[in-house]
Specification:
There is one protein chain. Helices cover 29% and strands 25% of the residues. By secondary structure, the chain is an alpha+beta fold.
């Protein structure tokens, strides 16, 4: 979630903040016909469970990795024995998760950013077009000013307000 827009509800939730992004822990209640039913985990739940919020957060990252693995342009790029070749051009590549719901969180899953950097052979620029995906760009071939302009245009024309993550 965007931390600034959601600061009131975040007071009750288990989350970690990175810049203006709040990585919120959700409970996956079920799925049917492509729809996901989930609920945000409140700090009071964690207390009732007798658990530490940081421990729950770390477990959620690992669980997310296995429940809805990261996908780059739909492909499994995390297989170190595979021969995945990402687009290294200016267009970038779309990173999400297998389920796509809240897929922008994929970049924060263990080892994902490092693996993408290795595959691209460069540092990364990340453009969060919504809560559901992040565009990953090779820092050697694009300019941040251009990406900021593209993001602004995308947010205005294609991203529903409820899916806004960050500028």
């Amino acid at each position: 979630l965007n931390a600034d827009k959601n600061r009131t509800i975040l007071k009750e939730l288990v989350y970690h903040k990175i810049g203006d992004i709040a990585l919120v822990v959700y409970y996956l209640a079920g799925e049917k016909e492509g729809y996901v039913l989930s609920a945000k985990i409140k700090k009071s739940f964690v207390e009732k469970w007798g658990k530490d919020a940081d421990t729950v957060f770390e477990a959620a990252l690992i669980n997310t990795y296995f429940i809805s693995p990261p996908r780059y342009e739909g492909d499994n790029f995390m297989d170190i024995l595979g021969t995945y070749h990402p687009n290294k051009g200016i267009a970038g590549n779309c990173l999400s998760t297998e389920k796509r719901t809240n897929g922008a969180a994929a970049i924060f899953l263990p080892g994902v950013a490092r693996r993408l950097s290795e595959l691209l052979g460069s540092d990364l620029y990340l453009v969060f077009t919504s809560v559901h995906e992040v565009m990953v760009h090779n820092a050697d071939v694009v300019y941040p000013e251009d990406l900021k302009e593209v993001l602004s245009d995308t947010l205005e024309k294609a991203t529903p307000e409820e899916d806004y993550l960050t500028s």
